[in-house]
């Protein structure tokens, strides 16, 4: 427990230092999203602690832009059964939400947080419960550290759906478990604070919530390569309520559009077969008869093309060996390595040798004298692609060939 106190102190200090820094400017664009407070209201929390938490949450929301086309807030009590104090869109200003939080009464009972998280998931994604489709979702869980039922799996489900999870622990609690439960990185999403010191984190938490609510963070690209990238978005539709139309256009050639339809329960798509080093404009257009959700746009630039071997030089030809070298030489940062495949041009089994990244030559041994080989050098890139170049190599005629020369041996010399 000593470690806990030290950690709490360290976190509080860090927060206090951060607060003394320059004031943040207003957010780049007006935030929109659903903010759900999940508050431990069970008998494990003292009345005093509960009243301090209420005060803290009230001060946290008061300056937030709440209302239509802005943030919606809801408060759910954790107890034997989850219980909604107020739902999304019920109050349309920071001040009225603050009043509603101050009026909330403690429910007592068990601490069934897992149950409450499953309930929170329904509230966050059910438009009938007042949630908004296609907006960022944030969960703020205030806990004294304990739960009667498992928290990990339902929390993971929420994060998989794109919900940003902040955890405020006012009591004991297991650091590792709570770090895993909060969104990454935990330094930003997990706070250990004494109930009497909650005011220390108010500003930082409010700023982090607003950051998470920035609408431009919704459509994201990842795993960008020279020929592909992955798109990911928050759930806006369901399989029943509609589908998405994805559009991909090279920025320099607006006429060349690729389209793809994906089901309403999809939250990602990989675009492949793209040109290297090229800007693409991507649009995600939700199509639904039930909901109107606007399109989202993103520009993504593919990586420059990986250059494979551009030149192969055959040298040191002997009856049973040749040396193969190539350029350019790529290091371990670019390639995993090279493989060199060789076999008689006239047919026969091919063999393969591996050459580590950073080297540009190998000597092929055990060859047949006076034979034409096809040699292929392949660079295996870190991102999975391969680039190859081939060349012909001839071995010198051996002793036996010299004793019984073939008519065209000389013409085949290197
Ligand atoms: C979408 O729903 C269908 C069935 O309705 C299911 O087979 C599919 O796996 C789901 N896809 C995703 C990405 O959840
Ligand atoms: C292979 O690398 C060596 C040393 O870096 C260089 O001198 C040589 O020209 C390279 N081989 C080819 C075929 O470019």
UniProtKB/TrEMBL annotation:
Under Pfam families, the record lists:
fn3 (PF00041), VWA (PF00092)
* Record field: transmembrane: none
Which keywords appear in this protein's UniProt record, sorted alphabetically?
Answer: Basement membrane, Disulfide bond, Extracellular matrix, Glycoprotein, Phosphoprotein, Repeat, Secreted, Signal
Q: How does it assemble?
A: Homodimer or homomultimer; disulfide-linked. Interacts with HSPG2.
Fibronectin type-III domain residues are: 215-306, 308-399
Q: What are the VWFA domain coordinates in residue numbering? A: 34-209
Q: Where in the cell is it found?
A: Secreted, Extracellular space, Extracellular matrix, Basement membrane
Name assigned to this protein: von Willebrand factor A domain-containing protein 1
Q: InterPro entries of this UniProt entry?
A: ECM_Assembly_Org (IPR050525), FN3_dom (IPR003961), FN3_sf (IPR036116), Ig-like_fold (IPR013783), VWF_A (IPR002035), vWFA_dom_sf (IPR036465)
* Leader sequence segment: 1-18
Provide GO CC annotations from the record: basement membrane
Q: Please give the superkingdom of this protein's source.
A: Eukaryota
Gene designation per UniProt: VWA1
Biological source species: Orycteropus afer afer
Q: Where primarily located?
A: secreted
Q: Does the keyword Methyltransferase apply?
A: no
Coiled coil regions, renumbered to chain: none
Role, per record:
Promotes matrix assembly. Involved in the organization of skeletal muscles and in the formation of neuromuscular junctions.
